[in-house]
Each structure stands twice: as C-alpha cells, then as structure tokens.
Amino acid sequence: MFLLLAAHCGAADLVIYSDKLANGFQDRSWSPRSLTNTSPVYSGKYSISASPTAAWQGLYFYHQDFDVSPYASVTFRVNGGPEGGQRLQILGLLSNDGQTPGHGCNFPAPTNQWQTITLPLAELGVADKTNCSGFSIQLAAGGATNTYYVDDIQLDAKPAPQAHAPAIAAAPLVAATPMPASAPAAVTPSPVIPAAAAPVPMNATGISPAWWIAGVLTIITVLLAWLILMLRRSGVGRADALAVVPATAVARRDAPASAEDWQQRARAAEAMATKQAQILSEKVIPEIKEFAKQSLVQGLFAQRNALLETQQRAQQELAQLEARLAELQLPLQGRILAYENRITELERELETRGDEMRELTRATLLLVRQKLEEEKKRENERSRFN
C-alpha cells in the first residue's frame, strides 16, 4: 500500500549535505577537508572545503546500502575557489566498492563562483540499485590541486507520473563528460563499522537475540497463565462443577443433598482433577519445555553467528585501512597518525550511532587500537636501536 502511494505521489528529495551530513550519510573522505567551512558558502551557514594534495584524493559520503530507485539524479553546488583549474569526477558506489571507468562523470570546477551540477544516476551506474553505498567527488588527474568547495548535495526524486500527459525528460544543468576508460579506479573507502539501524549483535531481523529469547520466554509464561486460567474457568478442581450427580439427586433437585451425595461428588471431582493434572503433566508441559529449549538454543546460535560476523567485518575494515595506508606509502609516523585519527572517528561514531551498528564499531575500534599499539611498539624499538 505504501509503495503504491509513493509511486502515485512521488518521493521527496533526499538531502545528503546541507550545513551538515543528513539522513544517515557519513564522512568517509580520504582528502584533507572541512565540513564546517564558513566561506565561501552557497546557502546556509557552512559548506565543504576539500584541499587535495594529489590526484584521486577525494570526498566520500558513505551510507549503508540503500535503495535509490525513487531518485533520478544527484545535484550539488561546486566552487573552484579564486584560482580554480581543478578537474573533478563524481562516482556512485555500490556496496562500498569503487565503480569501474565509464561509470563516472568528470567536469571542471568553475573559478571563484558557484555552479549547480546535476547528474543522472544512470550516468553513475547506480540507477535503480538497491545497494548504493554513497557518492564520492575526487580530483581527477591533470587538474590543479587548489582548494575547492561543495555545498547543498541531494538526491533528486523522480517526478510523480502524470496522467494523460507525455513524459518530458529534464536536461541536466551541466553536461557531464563520461570518465575516460584510462582513468584509475577510485580509491575504495573503508566500510562503515552498521543501527540497522542499532544493539548487542543483531540477527537478520535487526532484533537482539537476547531480547528475542526474553520475548519467547515471556510468551511461554503468558500461555501457561492462560492455560491455568482456562482450566479453572472450565471447573477443573471444583467439586461442585465436576462431580457426577447421582440419578436420585437429579430426580429430586429440591431435596437437600445428603452426606453420601457430597462424598460422591468430592470423590468424582478429585478423580477428574487428578486426570486433568496427569494429562497436563504428560503432554502439555513437556511440549512447552521442549519448545522453550529449542527457542533458547536457536537464540544462542543466532547470537554466536552474529558475534562471529561482527568480528569478521571488523577485521575486513582493518585490512582495508592497512591496504589504503600501504598504497599511500606513509612513513611509520604517518601510519600512527592515521590510526589515531581513525580511532578518534570510531569513538565519535560510537556516541552517535544507533544500537544496530554499535557492536560492530566497538569491535573495529578494538582492532585499530591493537594495531596502533603494534605500530608504536615498532617505533619505540627502532628509536632504541638508533
């Protein structure tokens, strides 16, 4: 019902940056930058300044894989600063991997003025994809390395379908040149180290196994209470309801019950209660216990798998960070500084992320701290020998 309504009315534009990153987008840039630049600014209070020192350094606005089928294009404003001369390229990324040449667009940055850039998602190779992981803007080869500025980044919603009217395609404000096939692939940013969307490791439904187990046990308790209540309402254990009334007593309802009649009723009620308790003990309770046992085992198994997956993803994050540092060929001091910066970023993310991603962030933070200690130990050993 919601999808039908969205298709009829059209989706809203999705803001990526407007004074700050929004809607779950995160900064994964590998270029010197500031997200709170105060001048020049296209609108609002801040813009983004990027000061690359070499080709292929760039900005990267990461988002956990999401569906871009409601959107047609990406729009942003760019300013080349007083000197200009930069040549920029924008890439759409899928599952945090850089796109191959031919799936990006490059363009010159205007000198000392703001220009609006609108690029169809089809040109970036991410149109109608369900695993888009964000967009990067980086310095292409052959351009100046001056500081440039970016502001007001958003995904433009597809127009709502118009009844009885021909579709008119809107031409992009800037004609983007396809990225040459010889251009090197974009530097692959490290994946964000998940909420959802959020706790203690999550299973596939996004619910904590511990909470899931507690919920199952609560349901079992409620079912037991309901069963006992139904048995009581049905008369189990009540002598006056379960007793077998003798024929003579039925024939003479108005006659007062004798002591023998009451004894017969009590014995019959006791026999019925014993039989019901035996049925409950032999059939119902063992089945409920087995169900609770299986639910607990499944919950613990799911929790174990979630912990293993979290550790593997954290190790992948560290491996990608190490590969990127090796590619940059940084000295030992530079690598230590890079690890310290990454730790600061992870600590900041740990405070702002939802529970779904917090456990993964903690695991990555622990591994990066261990790596930092190893690098510092190497530095101390080298200093001692020198």
Written overview of the protein:
The chain is α+β, with helices and mostly antiparallel strands and 386 residues long. The chain folds into two domains: 2-178, Galactose-binding lectin (Jelly Rolls, Sandwich), CATH 2.60.120.430; 209-239 and 276-385, no CATH class. 43% of the residues lie in helices and 19% in strands. It is built from seven helices and twelve strands. It has helices at residues 2-9, 209-234, 239-242, 247-251, 259-328, 332-352, 355-385, and strands spanning 14-17, 26-27, 33-37, 47-50, 58-66, 71-79, 87-94, 104-108, 114-120, 132-139, 148-157, 177-178. The strands form two sheets. Strands 1, 3, 4, 6, 9 and 11 form a six-stranded antiparallel β-sheet that branches. Strands 2-5-10-7-8-12 form a six-stranded antiparallel β-sheet, with no helix packed on it. α2 (209-234) runs antiparallel to α5. The protein is elongated and about 115 Å long. The protein starts with a helix and ends with a helix. Residues 1-9, 164-206 and 239-255 have low confidence and may be disordered.
